[in-house]
Amino acid sequence: MAFVNEDNLTDLAVRRWATARPDRLAELMTALVRHVHEFAREVRLTEEEWAAAMEWLAATGRISDDKRQEFILGSDVLGLSTLVVQLNNRFSEKATPATVLGPFHIDGSPTVGSGHDMSDGLPGTPLFVSGTVTDTEGRPVPGAVLDVWQADAEGTYEAQLPDVDEARLRAKYRTGEDGTYCVRTIAPRGYSIPMDGPVGELIRRTGISHYRPAHIHFLIDEPGYARLITHLFQQGADYLESDVVFGTKDALIVPFTEHGAGPAPDGGRIDEPYLHAEFDFVLDRRPEAP
Ligand code: BEZ
Ligand code: FE
Fold first, then answer.
1. Burial class for 147, CB neighbours closer than 10 Å (0-12, 13-18, 19+)
2. 82-119 residue pLDDT tens
3. By C-alpha distance, which of 266, 279, 275 is closest to 231?
4. Which ligand 1 atom is at minimum distance from the Cα of 194?
5. In terms of pTM, does the model score above 0.85?
């Protein structure tokens, strides 16, 4: 074997990793080696910078557990999570675009009836979100389950509150025969990503924004359709253009229109002013298995 010098090192490492099995692992690892070496050469990485990066990775591992995944947060703020969503969810242009899942989805939310108030009396401005779920030809998808979750009016999620052990601001709604749905909740507030770990420490050094704009998450996973994980963002909210996780898409920005007390979108009445967001979700067909 050839011994190592600056010129042949990348080739040697790529050739060694090319022997990995299975083939896909070899493909991933050889590309990683090439790009990481190229990065170090391009920025002329110093030994101090390399050591700081290793320490940052170790700290990211130390703070992560089954409840906190700091590496995913790191991937989010680098735009990698959104890129992976983009590469793997190339829906028809007619379909609702996908965006990041985020760390606050909880399995097993309660199934509730149309118009149910998932805020359960929490303080905040009442908000109705209503519309349809259809396929790309405009045909209603009856019985589709919309798994919905959001932060409260202070920008806090249930998982961030140690004393809460019941579902809070999350529920599953089902579309009717005509594909319509109606969620009742309170308006969420934009919020900062967790800043008490290595990702926060890195962001703080840069002065880039660490906020997400006000949004509500939706997951619709219907048999026969591509799974849709997406958000709706409040039009005019702060941070729409600087979303720290690059999740905001034009097609997902919706006006939250103001209404006075009176008839409500769920067919009933409401005795206080409220907001109403109307949005029609469009599901793509599930891609054929290769
Ligand atoms: C969220 O929207 O819940 C979220 C997404 C990525 C990172 C942090 C939070
Ligand atoms: Fe969120």
1. buried
2. 999 999 999 999 999 999 999 999 999 999 999 999 99
3. 279
4. 8
5. yes
